[in-house]
Design goal:
Layout lengths: L1 H5 L3 H25 L7 E4 L2 E4 L24 H18 L6 H39 L5 E6 L9 E7 L2 E8 L10 E7 L4 E6 L6
Parallel strand pairs: 5-7
Antiparallel strand pairs: 1-2, 3-4, 3-6, 4-5, 6-7
Helix pairs in contact: 2-3, 3-4
C-alpha cells in the first residue's frame, strides 16, 4: 500500500485523497440517512454552515420529508456528491486520457452530472412521498377512533385522537365544533384541517 502510494505523482495523490475522503463521507451520510439520522446533514448557504436536512423521525405520523436538502444546490451533501463523481472520474480515466486539462474538464462534467442526478432522484422521491401523504389524509375522513387527550369545545383548543387509518393506528391533533370531548370517548373524523389536525365529532362506540 505504501509502495503504491509512493509511486503516484502529486496530481494523482491529490485526486486519490479527494476520492477516498468523498467516498468515506458519502458512505457515512448514506448510513445515517437509512438509520433515520439524516437530520445531521450539513447545509451551507451564503451565511455559512448550519444544521439542516431531512427529518426522518420515526415519530412523524406521515413519514414525509420535512425538507429536502438536495433541492438546495449549495449543500455539503451536494459538494460531497460532486467530489465523488469528480474524484472517481479522475482516477479511473487518468490512464486513458493523456491530457490533464481534458481529464479535469471531463471529471468536472461528471461531478456536476452526478449532483444533478441525485437532486432529481430526491425530487422524484419527495414527490412520491407527498402524493402518498395526500391520499392518506383524504382517506382519514370517516375513520373512527378514540380521544387520546381531551378536546375543548367549539374549537377553543386542541386535543389528541388516535384513529385507525390504512390498517395502522395514527395519532393526530384534533378540534371539534361541538361540546368538549373527554379522554376515551369514541370519535369520527369529519374533516381534515391540515396534515396534523383533524376536525372530529363524537360517535357511538362500535361493539365487536
Amino acid at each position: 500500500m505504501i509502495d503504491w502510494w509512493n509511486s503516484l505523482d502529486l496530481f494523482m495523490k491529490i485526486m486519490w485523497a479527494i476520492t477516498l475522503a468523498a467516498s468515506l463521507i458519502f458512505v457515512i451520510q448514506t448510513i445515517l440517512t437509512f438509520i433515520g439520522a439524516g437530520g445531521s446533514d450539513f447545509d451551507t448557504d451564503a451565511s455559512g454552515l448550519d444544521l439542516g436536512g431531512m427529518d426522518a423521525s420515526a415519530d412523524d405520523a406521515s413519514g414525509a420529508f420535512d425538507s429536502d436538502p438536495s433541492m438546495n444546490l449549495l449543500t455539503f451533501r451536494n459538494f460531497i456528491n460532486f467530489c465523488l463523481g469528480f474524484g472517481w472520474a479522475s482516477v479511473l480515466l487518468h490512464d486513458k486520457i493523456s491530457s490533464t486539462s481534458l481529464l479535469l474538464i471531463i471529471a468536472v462534467i461528471i461531478g456536476i452530472a452526478l449532483v444533478a442526478a441525485v437532486m432529481m432522484l430526491f425530487k422524484w422521491l419527495s414527490g412520491m412521498q407527498q402524493a402518498g401523504n395526500i391520499n392518506v389524509y383524504r382517506s382519514a375522513v370517516g375513520c373512527k377512533g378514540t380521544a387520546y387527550l381531551p378536546i375543548p369545545a367549539e374549537r377553543k383548543g386542541t386535543g389528541k385522537v388516535q384513529i385507525s387509518i390504512n390498517n395502522a393506528i395514527r395519532e393526530f391533533d384534533a378540534v371539534t365544533d361541538g361540546d368538549a370531548i373527554p379522554t376515551g370517548a369514541a370519535i369520527k373524523v369529519a374533516e381534515v384541517i391540515n396534515d396534523q389536525t383533524l376536525l372530529v365529532e363524537t360517535t357511538t362506540p362500535e361493539i365487536i
